[in-house]
Amino acid sequence: MAHVALYRVKATFWKALIWITLGIVLFISIVFSFFSLPSIPSGLSNKIPATVWTYQEIVESELQTYNLESYTDLVLALITVESGGVGGDIMQASESLGLPPNTIADPLYSIEVGVSYFASLMQEMTE
């Protein structure tokens, strides 16, 4: 009878040890995942192509003109939808100037016009 009780104690000990070990491994994994986050926002990293990420600093700089730099990721997402970062009018900003699509041939000018239009929409929205 004492042998059965000793077996149960050992089994309970090993189960507890396994659960504690799994808990520690899970905790360490979670902690390391927070410290190894990429510089690109994790929710966007797979959805925004590298061609668009090349314009990140330019977009952020242009948005700073309007104190809207917190919208950098949103504007990058807009560029992704509009052109994927390819071509001259990457923000499809020609239309906001009343021009036919893809009239703008310079991506930097497209960002300037597109961000200006975005800022005007944000201003209109807050009013």
What is the CA-CA span between the terminal residues?
81 Å
Structural class of the secondary structure composition? mainly alpha
How many helices in DSSP terms? 5
Q: How would you sum up the major sheet? A: none
CATH class of the largest domain: Mainly Alpha
Q: Which architecture name of the largest domain does CATH use?
A: Orthogonal Bundle
Q: What is the name of the CATH topology of the largest domain?
A: Lysozyme
Strand content: under 5%
Instruction: Give the overall form.
Output: elongated
Tally of individual domains: 2
Q: Mind explaining what this structure looks like?
A:
The protein has helices at 2-35, 50-53, 56-64, 72-82, 107-126. The protein folds into 2 domains: 1-36; 50-126, Lysozyme (Orthogonal Bundle). It has 5 helices and no strands. The protein has 127 residues and is mainly alpha-helical. Helix 3 (56-64) packs across helix 4 (72-82) and helix 3 crosses helix 5 (107-126).
Main attributes?
single chain; 127 residues; mainly alpha; Lysozyme; 2 domains; 61% helix; 0% strand; elongated
In short:
The protein is mostly helical and 127 residues long. The protein is built from five helices and no strands. It folds into two domains: 36 residues; 77 residues, Orthogonal Bundle (Lysozyme), CATH 1.10.530.
